[in-house]
Write a structure and sequence with these properties.
With 216 residues, the chain is an alpha+beta fold. It has 5 helices and 8 strands, in the order H-E-H-H-E-E-E-H-H-E-E-E-E.
């Protein structure tokens, strides 16, 4: 998958009307100079695959921080984060950075196309979304299920109050659309999110912003 950062940033800025920057990496991971704090976190990860994913993710975060002329030590960055989000899939990783105060949070998710069972829809789609999904021709279901998953994940990551939430709590206004809005109902208020999902051929990439009330 060839992803050009400049072209992606242009698409995101045109859609969200915000300054969004990104860093992407695929293939062999270059040598990374980690700080002592980062190495301390790395040492707690026991699974080799998770170690590699963590290293790849921190590499793109460092790349993005350096571009923003910020301290490249990522140890203090935890998620969800108002300005940063991170996703990795296979040997690819992407980080995004939101500059300014136009949104309360940003989320990104990248997923490669793969065989996935229809039954998995019940874990992250609500009733209306599942009805739409199961009315699709079988040959269109796999790519749409991956697309919907990346949207829900990106929206979830952009929600700074996502603790104890499930993906099915985020309702898409139009599940057929690759760009639009989602909402999460809470007791006292409704949280609204904007999203954009891009078909990269063999994968889907989605980015979401949590919008302040005054900007909805």
């Amino acid at each position: 998958m060839l992803l050009k950062e400049v072209e992606l940033e242009k698409s995101l800025r045109q859609h969200f009307h915000c300054d969004i920057f990104c860093a992407y990496q695929t293939g062999d991971l270059p040598a990374v100079q980690f700080s002592e704090s980062e190495l301390a976190t790395y040492s707690t990860i026991k699974n080799l695959r998770r170690k590699n994913s963590w290293s790849r993710g921190r590499f793109v975060l460092k790349k993005l921080l350096e571009r923003m002329e910020q301290d490249a030590d990522t140890a203090s960055i935890t998620f969800p984060h108002r300005a940063f989000s991170l996703s990795h899939s296979g040997e690819c990783a992407i980080a995004v950075f939101l500059k300014g105060e136009q949104a309360k949070g940003i989320g990104v998710d990248l997923e490669f196309l793969r065989e996935i069972k229809d039954e998995s829809a019940r874990f992250f789609l609500n009733d209306a979304e599942r009805t739409w999904y199961f009315n699709l021709p079988p040959e269109l279901r796999m790519t749409n299920l991956i697309r919907l998953w990346t949207i829900k994940e990106a929206v979830f990551k952009s929600d700074l109050q996502n603790d104890s939430q499930t993906l099915s709590r985020y309702a898409l206004f139009d599940p057929s659309s690759s760009s639009g809005q989602a909402e999460r109902q809470a007791e006292a208020e409704t949280f609204v999110f904007d999203y954009l999902s891009l078909d990269l051929g063999q994968s889907w990439l989605s980015v979401a912003l949590a919008r302040p009330k005054e900007l909805r």
